[in-house]
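Contributing new records

If you add data, match the layout below exactly. Sequence lines come first and carry their own label; structure lines follow with theirs. Keep one chain per record. Anything else will be rejected by the validation script.
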Amino acid sequence: MNLLMFLGGLILLVIGANLLVRGASKLAMSFGISPLVVGLTIVAFGTSAPELAVSVGAVLDGKTDIAIGNVVGSNIFNVLFILGISALIAPLVVNIQLIRQEVPIMLGASLLLLALSLDGQISALDGGFLFALMVAYTVFLVVQSRRETQAAKDDFAGEIHPAEAGAWDSHWAAQIGLIAAGLVALVFGSDFLVQAAVSFAKAMGVSDLVIGLTIVAAGTSMPEVATSVTAAFKGERDIAVGNVVGSNTFNILGCLGLTGLVSGDLGLAIAPSLLAFDIWVMLAVALACLPVFMTGREIARWEGGVFLGYYLAYVAYLILAAQQHDALQAFSGVMLGFVVPLTVVTLVVVMIRRPSAAGAP
């Protein structure tokens, strides 16, 4: 029953996100907003709608560990798993704007989350600050989009089409109906997913936090998985990377910002284990994007394999730690004493031998 509830919630989240994006993008274009702006805002944020719905729903149910674990776990999953799988399908091209602007913003948002978490909670004031930054970032993207080249506008126009005259979704009433249906699906889907996740945690003897970091995080990232993998198969490899980076920034500023505001006077309590380990992993993953992206302005297949391997190692660590398994110490020793240093040395060698994108036009 719990498995059916989890799968049903996941399906509702994916359907809800698609309905929301479709209705909102067509409504925006009906009012004369360009496909480029729609792509940079509504579509990019729409893929993170499940994370937002689950995190807010979890806080309203008093499950703050799931709310925060979902965001942190999703950001780790997005980079290591989604980019890893996508790069294994085809080496991913990294747009120079991502290296110069979007990745540093994602890294800055991760650092800000760490700083705000040091006192053990995300207060309503912290949430308001994060959400204000999200609004400012969105306005910045819209203003910046006006200076984009015609080629960039044509790319987004090819991805996002206005409703054709006479089509059933060409009227504003149908578009609002799509938005409303998407929101309803997101609300019910998030409720089912959170209830099932709590039941899983109790049955497996692990904490809500671990379930939020793994099962819920992977589940709510399904729209990003679908978008990035499809883009990789279609050869639109820059979209695959941009979708992940933009989603991670929105998860921290938008999802945690709004969730913090909803939490009210209680705030979002940060679990000691989250502050001691998982947030640092999220920060390390964001930081690792810079050297990986800069080496030849692509994510090679072997780098995708490394990303995927690290995600599997991260999940294995969480499971071993939750069970206090005897192999935990040996596993940690191998990762910290051999695997991580070897990866760092390999990246340094690759950066030296391959041209950097930092000075590219």
